[in-house]
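quick one: dinuclear copper ion bound model?
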Amino acid sequence: MASRSRFASRPAALAALVLAAGLLGACASGHAQSALSPAGPVAKVELQLIAESLWIMVGVFVVVAGLLVFALVRYHERSGDQHIPKQVEGDSRLELLWTIVPFILLIILAVPTFTQTFALAATQTGPNVLDVTVVGHQWWWQFDYPSLGIVTADEMHIPAGTRIELTLESADVLHSFWVPPLAGKEDNVPGRKNTMWLEADQPGTFPGQCAEFCGTSHSEMRLLVVAQSASAFTQWAQGFQQPGSQPQTPQAQDGMQVFQTNCSSCHAIGGTTFQGGQTASGFPIAPNLTDLSAHVTLAGGTLANDSADLIQWINNPQALMPDAIMPAFQGILTQTQEQDVAAYLEGLT
Ligand code: CUA
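yep, here:
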């Protein structure tokens, strides 16, 4: 009886699994990091191609598996039956059939795939296109807006309903820029400029992730695309064009001094004399911290942007992101100094 009840519970377990998957799928709708919930024209075309090939393959599977099952049931050897069935080897009608049908199916797949691949690879130009350069670093993303004079990190703000032409570069090793709800992935290759474009239909926040193994903390190399209405985007851009970078409290004032001595040779802040440092190939060494208070996240999109996380990061980045390149300030700065720097940075508007 025990074994029977185990059997009886299997369909129940299966049903629970299917239900759980359905519920998780429901959570994942909205702005999940999923190519199955597209939120812009590029991702929609790509999902359509995925769906077309999937349904053709499902059709082929059903026909082939159906014929196989039919043949097994209808024509299997019966006891006492010694008769050899009619041989169909070299039947030209069958040979033609299973050559022509896959050929037609491949044409049906190839035409939209080729057309859309070229359409999506075309460089977007014109007065309504916004250019953004995306540089992969171990382990953060640099976003430059040459037409707006903005350099920022890890969170790419874009106006919704606008085509964004991206130029992808790398400051060190191979990375891959991937925001599944908006577009397929494209590699950031050192010494090369790859391009892609994307667009968000509506305002919203879309999570992304580096999709090419790039070292110890590859999995910590996340990003957010923040799509905004035109007016909200302009307001965000003004935060960089007219940055509020003067310390507003005595603590922040102290923090600015600490920053100048310890941080400013790597990190730049707009509206100050802090220019940051550059790599041999001319990329910023570290994230630009202008308007830091406008960020939702810190450190490659892995931490919340609040004083507690920021202090922890300054104190020991490697504890939060293995092999992080920024040095730990544990033992170099006092606890008060770390708090002061955090106060200064959180006050940047
Ligand atoms: Cu960058 Cu993985």
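The radius of gyration is 28 Å.
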